[in-house]
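Journal club side-thread
Mid-discussion, someone asked how the predicted structure for our own chain would compare to the paper's figures. Pasting it here so we can look after the session.
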Amino acid sequence: MSRKNILQGLMAGTPSPAPAAAERPRATKGAIGAVSRSIADLKARAVIEVDPFLIDAGGLQDRLESDAAEDAELARSIATYGQQVPVLVRPHPNDENRFQIVYGRRRVLALRDLGQPVKALVRDLDDREAVLAQGQENTARRDLSFIEKVNFARQMADAGYDRKAICDALSVDKTLISRMVSVSERVPVALIEAIGAASGIGRDRWLALAELMEKTDDDLDTLISTMSLTAEGQGSDQRFEALFSYLSGQRRREPPPPLRTEPITGHDGRPLGDVSRGAASVVLRLRRSHAKGFEEWLLQNLPDLHRSWQSDRNGK
């Protein structure tokens, strides 16, 4: 059934068919205007049945990964109890006979597999309204992880939406949106997608990871492969922890500050080399061209020199 026929069926049961476009009455004031608005409201609230194969993808990506077990459980629940909650669709902007999903993607896919029609609300939404509705429904469900919300905010920002729109879509304040944007700017999208939803990892841990990302010299492929090998066969929380541990260890392995270097000279004032002093070591470098064999003598006599120094120290 085409979208046009579906929408015409919204008012099934009325004595007469809907008027043609050319005959559609103009909005008026008073009782007639109120009736017209009531009919429009009824259409907006009506749940219709739609062929799931007439519903196309739309909006922004809200989930970073799918869970086959959860999808199968959703399909079993719908098969047993029916579709309890309608999805939201809008008329497809490029095909009058099709729809575009706003929210409820998993339900549509489950009903495709079951061969059942989709119970749907149809709203005439522009792109901004559709994204806001999608974001608000996701927030109301409370099952998106922090990084999935970050990814949603990033997509909205990339699409040109301002901070207020992003705040409204995710029902968060500007401070949290700033932190989300901070994470999305410092952790590459490919790395976020490689980690996955990480539902057990909250805001603070992601902010800490973003700070570690600023200090690494490893390229993206190295980070992804290291993380994947460490957490092979495990879930997204474990992939996050593997990457976090790797970067934390890398931070601990940062080289110490450079040694302080000074020239050294012989008794006659001629240069012999240099000495570098640091918190953990002292490095003595003698240039053969200047030392002229002194370096070998020093190595041979070093045990005796150390013994003499030790005796003097013990005698004090």
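Post-session note: Confidence is low (pLDDT under 50) at residues 6-28.
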